[in-house]
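Ticket #4471: structure output looks truncated?

Reporter: J.K.
Steps to reproduce: submitted the chain below (95 residues) through the standard prediction queue, then opened the result file.
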Amino acid sequence: MMPSAFCRLVACVVVAVLAGCASEAGPAGPQTTGSLASGRCAELKAEAARLEARGVQYRADQAGRGEAKLSPQQKAEVDRYNAVLDQYLGGQCHI
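Returned output as attached by the reporter:
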């Protein structure tokens, strides 16, 4: 009787997982933009790209390793870049 109970448990888990996946599907299928609206994800991605074009990512990496001394302006840009990345990744925009 043990294998039968185990099989029922596995079947229940599979059904629960499939139900959870189905509940995330919208009219066009599964959500691909994460928890933030796709417009907001696009805004965050564009802002990150602008900051990266100005070299902020490089300064953020250097500052994170303790290799750079940043001016207040540069520190503000690095802080903004990190905040944008946190929002982008936290909002699951990368999925």
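Triage note (M.O.): checked the attachment and the full token line is present. The chain has two domains: 1-30, 32-95.
Status: closed, working as intended.
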